[in-house]
Amino acid sequence: MNDNRPIGVFDSGVGGLTVAKEIKRLLPHENIIYFGDTKHLPYGDKSKETITKFTTKITKFLIKENCKAVVVACNTATSNSIEEIRKAAKDTLLIDVISPVAKKVAYELHQKIGVIATKATVNSHAYQKYIRKYNRHLKVIELATPLLVPIIEEGFRNTPVSRHAIESYLSYKKFEDIDTIILGCTHYPLIEKEVNSVFQGRVKVVDSPLIVVNQLIHEMEKNNLLGNTPDPEYHFYLSDYTENFAKLAKQFFGKSIILEQKRL
Amino acid sequence: MNDNRPIGVFDSGVGGLTVAKEIKRLLPHENIIYFGDTKHLPYGDKSKETITKFTTKITKFLIKENCKAVVVACNTATSNSIEEIRKAAKDTLLIDVISPVAKKVAYELHQKIGVIATKATVNSHAYQKYIRKYNRHLKVIELATPLLVPIIEEGFRNTPVSRHAIESYLSYKKFEDIDTIILGCTHYPLIEKEVNSVFQGRVKVVDSPLIVVNQLIHEMEKNNLLGNTPDPEYHFYLSDYTENFAKLAKQFFGKSIILEQKRL
Questions:
Q1: pLDDT of B46
Q2: Backbone dihedral region of B149: left (phi > 0), alpha (psi from -120 to 50 degrees) or beta?
């Protein structure tokens, strides 16, 4: 028995594409519906109420589109609104981007973990709380890096602009002796190479999309939700069309994707 | 007869401070109430409806605070919502940041004018429309430079980050032969020196805050609204407290200012 309903994925913008791309790689026979709330990005500076309003609306939309699972591919949404999103998702399988990563990291050998994320995620201290739930001896240092999402959304990756901003953030005094860093925003894997080049191999960068998608696969297997579509469809809804999104989505998913503007 | 009621000024964040500072310089005996809607910045990526909702609320608040004049120190608000703001302001003197600049520029000797602004301002083509109203022979090239507001709000002025972003934007092909540039966002005078250093004196940068405040003075004189407070009060309301705002406000207005968080 196979379940060929789509997997729903959402984020404020292109960030969640790093998770969606990993889903495509590890689950190549699944249809995917992606919602990018580009009209309201960045989420990272918004209030909990506002984030909850948009993300529960998107979740309801994805369920109406018949999704068999929903991946909250946004750290800000997870850290601020996961309970409300869970309610909106009702019985549908829901995967978030923080708890699988926190659990995995907590059981590995680390001394001191750095987390870079949006203001809203850092203010919620979600990583600290989740990681300490599993291992209360770990040191977790969280740093808000609010310019990185605009830099990525506006297409300034791999330029002197991104390089200097990343260098400036990562020179944070309390990061001096970290051995591991979590990119606590789904946008940030897009600048993983640049982060790595600042640390020059000294610090391990956690592969969050891989961990999240492994968790998704595990839960889908358990619930008999795996599909076997030979030629899956990748459908992208955007609350506001942006060139940068279209470009990146095509780069990750090929040119035959469906891109559609959708009022939220 | 003097009128010592305050002048109201508002913007999404620190940008309007460039106008408020000019008011303080040219009208040193006026009380000022400033509203910075830092919770909802940046306005530049938002829809017209959203911008209108926030800016009319702020205008009503300033009028309730007994302001004798309101300066819309935000290009995005002016270009998207000025009619609705005018209604909200009722009979109170209202000054916007685009029409005085467009009028002044239209009557001077220029061949080709560049405008850098937020996406929302560029999409409205407000500068093109206003300038051509006075002089339909002028060439006006508008360019959205959306990373500049986050760069300024996050404290990255005068760093390699701002320098590279500005260089990248200003290398826009259609800007090659402009003789004048309008900084079409009240944040941008904060990077005026950096813009100048890219053009190396080849292009005239329009001093928008000066033009706007001259218009304000002219209208205040006409309407007998000038004040003579010997020791004026500078009161700043913020919808969300940010370090960067506090720092810049103190730098411009001294340490005795009043800073207050205010729910919008």
A1: 81
A2: alpha
